[in-house]
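Hi support team,

I submitted a single chain yesterday and got back a structure, but I'm not sure I'm reading the token output correctly. Could someone confirm the output below corresponds to the sequence I sent? I've pasted both exactly as they appear in my results page.

Thanks,
R.
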Amino acid sequence: MVLTQPSVRARDASDFDYVATLLRKRRFRGQSEDVIVLPELIGENSATADYLARCAAMAQEFGCHVIGGSHFTEAGGRMINQGAVVDARGAVVTLYQKANPYGLEREFSTGSDRAGASFKIGEVECFVLVCADFWHVDAYRGLPAQPEIIFVPAFSVSRKSTPDLARARWRHAMIARAFEQAAYIAVSDWAYPVGKEIRPSSGVAGLAHPDPARTQDLLRSLGKSEVRVFEIDPEAGRLLREDQKSRGFEIARMRQEQP
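Hi R., thanks for writing in. Yes, this is the structure output for that exact sequence:
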């Protein structure tokens, strides 16, 4: 899995080129069941056809799935924040939409009826949802399958003068959600202070482990890195879920059963 945290944002299709250049410098080449996760609004001002073409081109070049961040598009006469998952051949696996627009976004876009989307990569159950939706409990209710990886393309804007508080909140929430859902939490974001002309991003990209052997592996952040490759073992979440179930502590299942 490749998580990204670009430090440059042009608000057009060249943002895809920037991330691709970072990956080429690392000589990254994935397998078909690997995944690159892009940040929210990487395709902000791209037409839908161009956005999908960029996602497909990246997937084909690097030989793996791409979680394409998101872009604004019109659907049913309204503007929505939408992203796409594409496979290694460049075919669209699923589209996902943001249900809870945040801040200035609320002035011109509307939320979808359902946060995110469920899908599979190989035999691994996955769920993707956009930034603010990660924080809403309702997003995790009624899922068709219990996710083993939760992907979060983010643009973690903050009202504070430094990113410290936002980073702390995301860190604690990611660790708690990973244990609650018995799933990896994989967040890609924009580096601090991208977007500072309005609100700067906080740079919260990282991977939360559902049940690590060491405390320091509860969350591995990107820090100042713009890309980082992680190896994951979905069996960790499966074993945790079975352990929770045996103790009557299967939190995610209980949440799904609530009305």
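A quick pointer for reading it: The longest helix spans residues 164-181. Let us know if anything else looks off.

Best,
Support desk
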